[in-house]
Automatic annotation (TrEMBL):
Has three domains with a flexible linker between the domains II and III and assumes an 'L' shape. Domain III is highly mobile and contacts RuvB. Residues 72-91, 107-126 form the Helix-hairpin-helix DNA-binding motif class domain. Pfam families: HHH_5, RuvA_C, RuvA_N. The RuvA-RuvB-RuvC complex processes Holliday junction (HJ) DNA during genetic recombination and DNA repair, while the RuvA-RuvB complex plays an important role in the rescue of blocked DNA replication forks via replication fork reversal (RFR). RuvA specifically binds to HJ cruciform DNA, conferring on it an open structure. The RuvB hexamer acts as an ATP-dependent pump, pulling dsDNA into and through the RuvAB complex. HJ branch migration allows RuvC to scan DNA until it finds its consensus sequence, where it cleaves and resolves the cruciform DNA. This is Holliday junction branch migration complex subunit RuvA. GO terms for molecular function: ATP binding; four-way junction DNA binding; four-way junction helicase activity. Coiled coil: none annotated. It comes from the Bacteria.
Length: 194
């Protein structure tokens, strides 16, 4: 499996990037999010996923590991292929897709070309719990900056606590602790508030 490629971006289009890695050109299919992230760069690293079918071997490229991981989650859903997953990642940012699935927002998912009502419902049913339990990279809580509070939520989620419960416990804890409380203290107190 090819985990990533690093090299010169020889060809850049909104759907395709050719990366020259020591004289070998890798043709990668990309989302608009990835294209936007690298459009001003001459070289760099792209995480990859090799999709093998009867008729083709297609290499997909991602500017961020979180986008690749979401892509893999999306294609694990019955009826959602690699092309549809790439279309989803082109229509919305990964954190927006994750939020829509976790919140059960079928309308937002249906706004993406190629996603109908049944597909949106299937995505929510199959991925809501998985995505809700994963610790997301970057700030995931609305209204909460990436800080000690967000790190505490990530730690609680990593311990197996559902994100909504973890967020409530941390918010409750932060109201009763000093503003400069340590991460360890916040986690311990939040565990008591569950």
């Amino acid at each position: 499996m090819i985990a990533f490629v690093r090299g010169q971006f020889v060809v850049k289009t909104p759907a395709r990037i050719v990366v020259d890695v020591n004289g070998v050109g890798y043709d990668l299919q990309v989302s608009l999010n990835t294209y936007a992230a690298i459009s001003n760069k001459e070289s760099g690293l792209l995480f990859t996923y090799l999709h093998i079918t009867e008729n083709a071997h297609t290499l997909y490229g991602f500017a961020e590991l979180a986008e690749k991981e979401l892509f893999l989650q999306l294609i694990s859903v019955s009826g959602v292929g690699a092309t549809t997953a790439r279309m989803m990642l082109s229509g919305m940012k990964p954190e927006e897709i994750t939020r829509a699935i976790v919140q059960g927002n079928t309308r937002q998912l249906e706004s993406i070309k190629g996603i109908g009502k049944k597909s949106a419902e299937r995505l929510i049913v199959e991925l809501k719990d998985k995505l809700g339990k994963q610790a997301l990279q970057g700030p995931a809580m609305a209204g909460m900056p990436h800080s000690v509070d967000a790190d505490a939520v990530h730690a609680l989620v990593a311990l197996g606590i559902g994100r909504p419960m973890a967020e409530q416990a941390v918010k409750k804890t932060m109201g009763s602790l000093a503003a400069d409380a340590s991460l360890e203290t916040i986690i311990k107190e939040a565990l008591k508030n569950l």
